[in-house]
Amino acid sequence: MARRIEEMVCDVSQQVIEKIKQDKRFALQLDESTDISNQAQLLMYVCCCDEDMKSDLKVHFLDEEWVFQLSYLADVFSKIKELNLQGQGFDVNIFQAHDKVKGFYKKVLFWITQVEKGDIATFESLSNLIIENEVVLTGRVMIIISNHLTILANTFLKYIPEIALKDLTNT
């Protein structure tokens, strides 16, 4: 029985590897954890956009503009996650967390000005995608990104209005 399972694992692994080699669009997610017996476990998710796939989602993944927007959102959520992690821990107090949020708000304002100038270098995944595919972002995507960043900045102001106040201690 164990030999049969091992053969199946090998066969599935080879199929996945071949699929990744054939398809140009795929995503890979890895997660490592330790089980109750203190053994390290590596979990891998692979998502491919199969040309033969019959799915409503396929249309989106084959749409270059949609993929660019998705890539941008992945970058933004990564930056928000980073901010979230900086505000956690026993050694972080409310003043430090407030400063981190205020700094992030200022970064968002800076990103807006950069995007309006056509500079998207801040968004690493998006920049790499553009470079790898040797394309230029359309004005429509740049406007969508700029609008989204503006909404993000306004949302921060809605919940923490004092982050926009001038810091009187530094004047």
Walk me through what this model shows.
It is a single chain. The radius of gyration is 22 Å and the shape is flat. Helix 3 (64-86) packs antiparallel against helix 5 (124-133) and helix 4 (94-116) runs antiparallel to helix 6. With 171 residues, it is mainly alpha-helical. Helices cover 61% and strands 11% of the residues. It has helices spanning 2-22, 56-61, 64-86, 94-116, 124-133, 139-159, and strands spanning 26-34, 40-48. The N and C termini lie far apart (75 Å).
Record keyword descriptors for this entry.
single chain, 171 residues, mainly alpha, 2 domains, two-stranded antiparallel sheet, 6 helices, 61% helix, 11% strand
How are the elements arranged and paired?
Elements: H1 2-22, E1 26-34, E2 40-48, H2 56-61, H3 64-86, H4 94-116, H5 124-133, H6 139-159
Antiparallel strand pairs: 1-2
**What's the helical proportion of residues?**
55-70%
C-alpha-based Rg, rounded: 22 Å
Number of domains: 2
Give the distance, in angstroms, between the N- and C-terminal Cα atoms: 75 Å
Helix and strand sequence: HEEHHHHH
What is the beta-strand fraction? 5-15%
What's the total count of β strands? 2
| Broad structural category | mainly alpha
